[in-house]
Design brief:
Helix content: 40-55%
Number of domains: 1
CATH architecture: Alpha-Beta Barrel
CATH superfamily: Homocysteine-binding-like domain
CATH topology: TIM Barrel
Length: about 300
Amino acid sequence: MVDLLEPFIARRGAAVLDGGLATELEARGLDLDDPLWSARALIDAPEVVAAVHRDYLEAGADIIATATYQATIPAVTAAVLLSGVALALRERDAFWEQRARDRVSARPLVAASIGSYGAFLADGSEYRGDYGLDVEALATWHRPRLRLLETSGADLLAFETFPSLVEAEAIVRLLAESDGPPAWLSFQARSAEHLADGAPIEAAAALAERCPRTLAVGVNCVAPALVTPLLARLAAATSKPLAAYPNRGDTWDAASRNWIKSRTAVAFDGLVKGWRAAGARLIGGCCRTTPADIRAIVTALD
């Protein structure tokens, strides 16, 4: 399954992910103050979602993620969920067709974004993981959406911002139940050592190590300063490629539903070579990052 990444790794040592989707949609005037968050745009403004996908591809992203992070079967119809994948695939294919005479790398990939149970709750609990549900309950909840996305045509599955070891165990169990696209597991961390629920980050890496369908394991939507020490701990517990796509260092305030801007500016181009050296083979950005940030990452890795 790592073969899927090899053309990108051969080119610049890592595949470049896209950046923030929902926050970029908001920057373009969409109101996403809705339990569906970015998935709301699949219903109200799919053309804007398509434009953001295209801008990340133009910036040099090797993998774009669908606007399905917060789209769950209890909240939307299967048709809406699948439309997010279909839209990303169309933009990728159109982009690739236009580059027919200038192909210097492999065709970009589409990852179906899958958020945690906390994302469905839309109360910030994906940054805490305090659900009070066991492995079986979480597996039962995730199963319908996963089974649908496995047949959606996406090249990859991206389990993003997972805060708890229990939920990771549920995902690994579900991946073992059937065949399907390879997946990466990316975690939310409260510190340089622990997941958001307090479990050691090494325990999450060990789970991924045992799962044949897991392509990579990493962290996302953490502060950039946490990435390097987290990668070191992940590398000690797994031989799989690592993923790193932090936010811009801002803090999400669940009560006010706003981002609190960091006082320290982040220059990703000065950090990503270190992440690559630490084992990251999927590198990009999360909330508040932009196509300009992805272009800077591409330039730095090149």
